Amino acid sequence: MVEDRPFLNFLAHAVLILGVVVVAFPVYLALIASTHTAQAFSSGVIPLLPGAEMANNYMTMLGTGMSSSGAPPLGGMMLNSLIMALIISLGKIVISITSAFAIVYFRFPFRNLAFWAIFVTLMLPVEVRIVPTFKVVADLGMLNSYAGLSVPLIASATATFLFRQVFLTIPDEMLEAARIDGAGPMKFFRDILIPLSRTNIAALFVILFIYGWNQYLWPLLITTDDRFYTVVAGIKRMAEVADAVPQWNFVMAAVMLAMLPPVLVVIFMQRLFVKGLTETEK
Amino acid sequence: MKRTIFGNQLLPWLLLAPQLLITAVFFLWPAGQAIWQSFLREDAFGLKTSFVGLLNYRALFNDGDYVNALGVTLVFSVAVAALSMGLALLFALAVDRMLKTANMYTTLLVWPYAVAPAIAGILWWFIFNPTIGILPYLLDFVGYDWNHSLQSGDAMVLVVIAASWKQVSYNFLFFVAGLQSIPQSLREAAAIDGAGPVKRFFTITFPLLTPTTFFLLVVNVVYTMFDTFGVIDATTQGGPAQSTNILVYKVFKDGFLGLNLGSSAAQSVILMGIVIVLTIIQFRYIERRVQY
Amino acid sequence: MATITLENVGKTYPGGAAAVQGINIAIQDGEFLVLVGPSGCGKSTLLRMVAGLETITEGTVRIGDRVVNQVEPADRDIAMVFQNYALYPHMSVRQNLAYGLKNRGTPAAEITRRVDEAADILEIRPYLDRKPRALSGGQRQRVAMGRAIVREPAAFLFDEPLSNLDAKLRVTMRGEIRLLQRRLGTTSIYVTHDQMEAMTLADRLVVLNGGRIEQIGAPLEVYRRPASAFVAAFIGSPAMNLLNATLDNGRLRIGSASLPADVAGSGAVTLGIRPEDLRRTAGRADALHMSVDYVEELGATRLVHGRLEGQKLVCTLSADSTLGDMLALEADAGALHLFDAGTGARIN
Predict the structure, then answer these.
(1) Is residue B120 part of a domain?
(2) A156 to chain C, closest Cα gap in Å
(3) With a CB-CB cutoff of 8 Å, which residues 240-279 of chain A face chain B?
(4) What's the predicted TM-score (pTM) here?
(5) ipTM of this model?
(6) A217, A244, B269, C218: which one has the fewest Cβ atoms less than 10 Å from its Cβ?
(7) Region class of A41: left (phi > 0), else alpha (psi between -120 and 50), else beta
(8) How many domains are contained in chain B?
(9) Could you read off the pLDDT of C239-257 as tens digits, one per residue?
């Protein structure tokens, strides 16, 4: 701040408080809705103060699911989401860090071609090539499986670029010292590169976990067996029914549960999250 | 480029193999399929497939629905980018004035990044629900009859708000980083030169934020074109009367629900072209900014 | 301990550019050899070729009796100290020192013994459990040396190890390196661009220019009889005066001034005179008359900058001398260095 202007400071606080309230408003309403009985909504206006059914609604959703629409219990779907998010984020990190290692620390024929092949994946979001990708996964018999949920999303140009840039900032002398110290490629990778990249790995993990957890279209398409439903995609199925038979309390309890894990990750790992976001730039 | 490297020839291929394999099977092959498919057309019974050249593409541009989707996508992208970037810049400028409370405000503003687009859609759909939603209830007092399942304008407003709500956090973080990278001495020099806060913003701060703004513009366009699928699907599903049917949603609808594979593939190919152009712009920006 | 022999060594990059060529050096067992030259002269490349970090395209490098051209750096029995130290930032000092030994399968007890011994020699024992970032520049430098010592290698290779330190610490560490090398008696090659460092450290120094050797010799030998105008200008501070002169049957003419010379022949030459070899004279007929531009006081001495027949000249005088606008100077015939005006090669 260049100079102290009380009015501007007041204005800034006012803008931010208003912003925080507006940003939080939809979630507040969802939280309130999830604490009432289904009958509370029949009056025509959403209640604005908490009700008494919170524990009941959440236990119902986690344990038994929504009976009227045949939706499975949320507990299982959240576990599926967790498994999918972990496979995607850890898988992306592993295959990206080894790819970046190969590209930065070796010279081999077609190195540039390999680099560009990976680069292409950045250009093709899954939504764009959804039909043929679905067909490939179906042909490989990967529908309704954890592999089908996660493997097609694992290739990552973004993470490869990030690690490439991290490796390029590591001084050449680090490798030279390690070579003189008798470290071969894999030893150097394990003893030097991975420890030196660990904050980048952690930051990337935060971003990728959110990315994985929030997958929507892909799980919606390739899971028809409710044992493999993920929570974000599963809610859509619930909300569709809810429009006809309003059970807003249950739907909103599900919404709260579906967004809780990634939101907690952002709040408690804010430093890593910001680092991950600004470094991957995507 | 590293000065020193390892001499192995086989090892780098082993290290690259998983990534290349997945890229080939799930990215390159389907993309190739989409291109090939876009030149084919199936007959009405799905029995015979014939090569039709660019017919699918030509049909698209004669198709009122497709031209409409182009326009909808444009309106949607511009509106979301303008709304989310404008608010984000406002918040970032305010936070930039804060010392002790900056971190707390940041935390309270960034968490929606973690909310899935589909969930964001459902949250706002609930608020705008014509029967029980709070906002239609309030709008009723000023005499406006909100109904996004019947009125095109209402539907567009709904998806724009839901998509922007989630994107503000991302833009906010980049604007904050951009503001922090402006040397304090520049603003101090301008203050000594007699520029007040407003003048300083327009003559110093905003011009120096141009790279950030441009970068965010590209990212936001990519976001609205592809990542908002969940927002649309959870709220309007492209309706009413195609008024929120963005390109990526139409690809899905025509391919999976309409089973019009040739047309869907042609749409995919056009989208890929758009992504490639946007990615190259974005990539050039990153390469320019991060130089080693 | 070992000798290192470079025979006709050269490196040509794939593009055809030659980094170094025709290098012949025989380094004695226990010798401290300094490679010195301006940046881009190929000194670091040469060192890295000995280390095995650059491929050798011509000639052979021997460490002891073994030709090491195709040997991996780790198997050459050498240790290297880098300019930026290249300490592993995520490892403690102890782990940094132990890493090379561990990779070689040295028994744990032996590692501990060697690390402790090196830590005592370098007085870094209190820092053994710290990470490098918690150390000062001088301490990091010691750790980098420690990493070389624990290996007990046949040779130490130093790549400008002091250039990241401030001037004062540089002088201290310079002394320590010399002392340490004397004590351990390990053959060492040391690269620097600083001629002062080269002079003070070396048993012998090698002056490199444009990828070729200009001169090899003991520091004083190189200082007293530089083999070329390049070496003359590079070694010594303040730098030697180099004047355009004409050799004319036993006289050296610089414009209208002239000096006796003990060289026959005639033609254009470059005349070198060190500033400290110039002294004032009174009443000598063929004195050199220098006009004074400005004076730098160094305390015990002063540097007088001026012109002789329009050419720049510097001389070192004692601080108590009184100065006018003009100085009459002379130099002994033995202090005159004559170089070919074209090739720069020494001719007397």
Answers:
(1) yes
(2) 27
(3) 246, 248, 251-252, 255, 258-259, 262-263, 265-267, 270, 273-274, 277-278
(4) 0.86
(5) 0.89
(6) A244
(7) alpha
(8) 1
(9) 999 999 998 887 888 888 8
